[in-house]
Design brief:
Blueprint (H helix, E strand, L loop, with lengths): L2 E5 L2 E4 L4 E8 L6 E8 L6 E7 L5 E3 L7 E6 L4 E6 L8 E9 L7 E2 L3 E6 L1
Length: 119
Amino acid sequence: QVQLVESGGGLVQAGGSLRLSCAASGRTFSNYVMGWFRQAPGKEREFVARITWSSGSTYFADSVKGRFTISRDNAKNTVYLQMASLKPDDTAVYYCAARTKADTTYNYWGQGTQVTVSS
């Protein structure tokens, strides 16, 4: 069974940085796409970034492009979301998700980690 465990959330001032981690287990993830999503209070969950595990290819939402990076550590089976130049609008619960490359929807989700950016 796939398990995704996020960590690294917290409170940070606007302009600051934070790195989220997603520890993945239960599968060999070479055929997977790993994504980060977020959900702010009263808003729908939105896509943030994704990385194809095998190739390292990345894609970002326009709202975070140039400020966030996504990477993976094969040895640790961990995906990272490095967030910089944080804004109060980035405040949300951040979720890690996984799908196979053949799927169009994400089938596996973590429990989420809270990120709060103060102004």
